[in-house]
Amino acid sequence: MKLSSIHHFALVVADLDRSLAWYGDVLGFATEAQWDVAEAGLRFAHIHVGDIRFELMEREGAAAGPDESADVFGALATRGAKHVGLHVDNVEATAAELRDKGIDILFGPNEVPQVGVRNLFIRDPDGNQIEFVEVHP
């Protein structure tokens, strides 16, 4: 087996239409495809920006996840996926752009010298954490 890249990152959302609008308006994602699996009560969408692809999934009656209201470090009290990290050229400029769009910064900008990055975290409308990472040369 030879792995070459990540194809997509999947998120369960409460309202697919709301999430499509948010990811488009806030982060610039475009909708690639949408489909339903009616017998399972599921709606899907693939969205992308550049080479980054997310799969958004809406399931009727899906409960909020345990990390929905936890802070960045509190979310680590349970196992499982915690956030997706997106590379940006300038984390300070990203923070300013997000604030201009009315997005609250959950944590950061913050220096992580152990791995040579600056980062910040936000939440999408469903509480999923998104990290923005500026890598130092």
Automatic annotation (TrEMBL):
GO terms for biological process, alphabetical: L-methylmalonyl-CoA metabolic process
Keyword Metal-binding (UniProt): yes
Domain VOC intervals: 5-135
A GO MF label: metal ion binding
Keyword entries, A-Z: Metal-binding
InterPro entries according to UniProt: Glyas_Bleomycin-R_OHBP_Dase, Glyas_Fos-R_dOase_dom, MMCE/EMCE_epimerase, VOC_core
PROSITE patterns, per database record: VOC
Keyword presence, Metal-binding: yes
PANTHER family: METHYLMALONYL-COA EPIMERASE (PTHR43048), METHYLMALONYL-COA EPIMERASE, MITOCHONDRIAL (PTHR43048:SF3)
Protein name: VOC family protein
Origin species: Pontivivens ytuae
